[in-house]
Design brief:
Number of helices: 11
Radius of gyration: 20 Å
Strand order of the largest sheet: 4-2-1-3-5
Structural class: alpha+beta
Number of domains: 2
Distance between the termini: 24 Å
């Protein structure tokens, strides 16, 4: 893009022009926002059951347009990935490129703040334990903090998620011996899809996931309930099965 050195750089205007031609979910969100759609209307357009991605997109717009640096490590990391993706765009002005390069360093530093990561994980584990304590029968979706911070497929947000059923108690219930000895980190509960027919529902979920080639690694010592997938896809399955969707810890990622 040509640079007019006689006038001050208008970052907001340039970013908004780039968003107008963005073909990712962020670009679609931007068009919905310009039309004045509500989060619910945006979710209907994207056929998603939850609104987490809407608020993530709003935050990413502030990151790109206004230079915001989120304080939450997971959010800062997602923002850093988006900024790095934008830096591959050859049409950026020199001014915007320099601004994004400096911002990416700040975002990456915040994302790697160990103390902030620990606080974020503790809060997510507490929310998980509180939801587990209700003992709701249904499908439970877990992951590990590492898989949230480092998705298997950063471009789409797909990562390893454990999709299993429980007739009474969550498999990783607080204090469970399995929880403490089988995993390197405390798992985080992302979703509960309540159903009294949890075993049958689990079979349906696993069939959909395998049919979509979302299966995880398989081996003699690996679990059969881990899949490389996304909350968006799991929510779509749940909606198709007419199950309630309870978002316990929502880390909707935006490609």
């Amino acid at each position: 893009m040509a640079n007019d050195t006689s006038a001050p750089h208008d970052r907001a205007a340039e970013v908004e022009r780039l968003l107008d031609s963005d073909e990712t979910m962020l670009g679609r969100f931007w068009q919905y926002e310009k039309l004045g759609l509500t989060p619910q209307e945006m979710a209907e357009q994207e056929e998603t059951a939850t609104f987490g991605w809407v608020y993530n997109c709003r935050r990413l717009v502030r990151v790109l347009r206004d230079g915001e640096v989120p304080t939450a490590p997971a959010v800062a990391q997602q923002a850093a990935r988006k900024v790095r993706a934008w830096l591959k765009n050859n049409s950026l002005s020199n001014q915007l490129r320099l601004q994004l390069e400096d911002q990416e360093k700040l975002l990456s530093s915040r994302a790697e703040d160990r103390q902030a990561q620990t606080e974020e994980t503790v809060a997510a584990v507490k929310a998980s334990e509180s939801a587990e304590a209700a003992g709701t029968p249904g499908i439970y979706v877990y992951t590990l903090p590492h898989y949230l911070r480092h998705p298997i497929d950063p471009d789409t947000g797909k990562t390893l998620l454990k999709v299993g059923h429980s007739t009474k108690d969550a498999y990783y219930r607080a204090g469970s011996a399995n929880r403490l000895t089988a995993l390197p980190e405390d798992p985080i509960l992302l979703r509960i899809y309540p159903t009294s027919e949890s075993s049958a529902a689990e079979k349906e979920f696993h069939t959909w996931l395998r049919s979509a080639d979302h299966s995880g690694a398989r081996g003699n010592r690996t679990g059969t309930e881990w899949f490389v997938t996304s909350l968006k896809f799991l929510d779509r399955i749940a909606a198709s099965l007419k199950l309630e969707i309870r978002a316990i810890t929502d880390f909707d990622l935006v490609e």
